Amino acid sequence: MIGAKTVRCQVRGATDHPCTRPAVREILGVPFCEACAREHETYIAMGELIEAQDRVCEWTERARSLDNPVLMEMLDRMQLELAMRLTGAGRALKEIGRGADDLERTR
Asked: What angle do CA 12, 18, 22 make, to 5 degrees?
């Protein structure tokens, strides 16, 4: 548990370039600093968005056989919304990376 004692972020802990920031959160029992936690959560969200896109693609293939224009339009809008969210998550990752770089420079 984080709090009583200083625990280091475990990101890349077994590599030559581990994160050296103090951990402030635990995700599934693994200590993360704030920047690494945000990055990890963003990757998880991106994976969920990609899975949702795959499901919508499958639904679209099935819907084609129904020849239902309203259903096809709805699925197209879902695909567009998911694509925009995935793009936003990618931008967020870039911002998180820049923020982490800035934090490292101030150390």
From this structure: 105
Question: Is 9 within 8 Å of 31 (Cβ atoms)?
Answer: yes
- CA torsion sign for 57, 80, 87, 42 is negative
Amino acid at 99: G
Instruction: Please state the pTM of the whole predicted model.
Output: 0.69
Q: Contacts from 75-83 at CB under 8 Å and sequence distance 24+?
A: 79/53, 82/49, 82/52, 82/53, 82/56, 83/53
DSSP structural state of residue 27: E
pLDDT tens digits, one per residue of 73-90: 999 999 999 999 999 988
